[in-house]
Amino acid sequence: MSLFSVLSVSASGMAAQRTRATLLAENLANAETTRTPEGGPYRRKDAVFISEPAAPFGEVFQSALGAGGTGVRVAEIIEDPREPEKRYQPGHPDADADGYVAFPRINPAEDMVDLMGAARGYQANVAAITAVKDMIHRSIELLR
């Protein structure tokens, strides 16, 4: 695997973790949203990752060189299929006839931990890119 392939793998990881962090921040911001344009409470969203060749021509390089890297991308964004959490709040404008309000099933503590994981994944990819950049720089210095 070349150093440039490593850069491509890390860049794809950074993009995927950025999308995940954006979704987690959106979940946290909408933890109490009871009404959306689609109707009903906000639905928690999560990113599904899949692996893919590190470069657009990755499959050709893998077959020619016998090795290559795989990156990651967001395959889809899924919404929580569970029923909303019902809370008894008869004075709420979105309360049903029995006085219950549908709230999103979002656990802020869980999403904060996931957000920290996404930030650490992003930082790990930045560290890998920095290491590769340093290796390339040192290689150029040796060739002078």
Itemize the secondary structure elements and their pairings.
Blueprint: H1 3-29, E1 45-53, H2 58-65, E2 70-79, E3 85-88, E4 100-103, H3 108-143
Antiparallel strand pairs: 1-2, 3-4
Helix pairs in contact: 1-3
Strand order across the largest sheet: 1-2
Gap between N and C termini: 24 Å
Number of strands: 4
- Per DSSP, what share of the residues sits in E-state strands of 2 or more residues? 15-25%
Estimate nothing, just give the exact number of structural domains: 1
Task: Name the average pLDDT.
Answer: 89
**Overall 3D shape:** elongated
Characterize the largest beta sheet: strand count, sense, and whether it forms a barrel.
Answer: 2 strands, antiparallel
Order of helices and strands: HEHEEEH
